[in-house]
Amino acid sequence: LITGVDISEKFIRYCKKNIKGERITFVESHGIDFCKAAPTDHYDAIYCAWALPYFDHHLLFPEFKRICKTGGIIGIVSNSKGTLRHIESAYMEVMMEHPASFHKIMDISFHLPRGKGGLNRWMKNAGFLPLFSGEKNVELLFRSPGELFAWLQESGALAGTNQLFYHPGEMKDEIIKKIKKKNKVSIKGKLMYKVNHRYVSGLYQKNTSGNRNNGEE
């Protein structure tokens, strides 16, 4: 049996409509709330993709360990520290320059591991042995700062940042001005706007007291 969990009612509705199967169910819930309600030693595998930054791993991983069977597998895909170069500072500067416009303080970097080494340490401390881990840094080029901003929004790379301000989108022009200043590069004499996407992934096994694998590749 496969259970998909997400806090977004819209996303769960989409999944129920487009993904069919007798062995698949979808639950609208906060991830940690779902884990706390789940039985101990229940799941053979847990897959957490692009959701890790929205949790405090000190709270999440102990729940993963409790509900995962001994020898079970955890799969992780997450952004890592240093991703979206300059974008965090662009948002922070806009917030500082327009303090009356935002209603929620938010760490744009979220809870991100420092590469595969950082993720491996988190998982080992939580009782999981690395089977594999890897990381990658991809640089993306855009023809205009507005095009870069649109990618950030449409790709979900900055999911949640619209909630920083009282009126979503009201600081769009200010943020684009910062991107124009911070992210511009000259490529063969042509002005472009560059940002990076750094991410880490890994497979981990609930500690069975067997031989350790450093999981690095």
Throw out a few tags for this protein.
217 residues, alpha/beta, 5-stranded mixed beta sheet, globular, disordered C terminus
Describe the overall structure:
The structure is a single chain. Helix content is 33%, strand content 30%. It is built from 7 helices and 7 strands; from the N terminus they run E-H-E-H-E-H-E-H-H-E-H-H-E-E. Strands 3, 4, 5, 6 and 7 form a 5-stranded mixed β-sheet that branches. Residues 210-217 have low confidence and may be disordered.
Tell me, briefly, the overall form.
globular
Per DSSP, the total helix count is 7
User: How far from one another are the termini?
Assistant: 31 Å
How large, in whole angstroms, is the Cα Rg? 20 Å
Mean pLDDT: 88
Number of E-type strands: 7
The poorly predicted ranges are 210-217
Beta-strand content estimate: 25-35%
Which secondary-structure class do the elements indicate?
Answer: alpha/beta
- In helices, the fraction of residues equals 25-40%
Main sheet properties: 5 strands, mixed
* Helix/strand order: EHEHEHEHHEHHEE
Summarize the structure.
With 217 residues, this protein is of the alpha/beta class. It has seven helices and seven strands, in the order βαβαβαβααβααββ. Strands 3, 4, 5, 6 and 7 form a five-stranded mixed β-sheet that branches. A two-stranded parallel ribbon has the order 1-2.
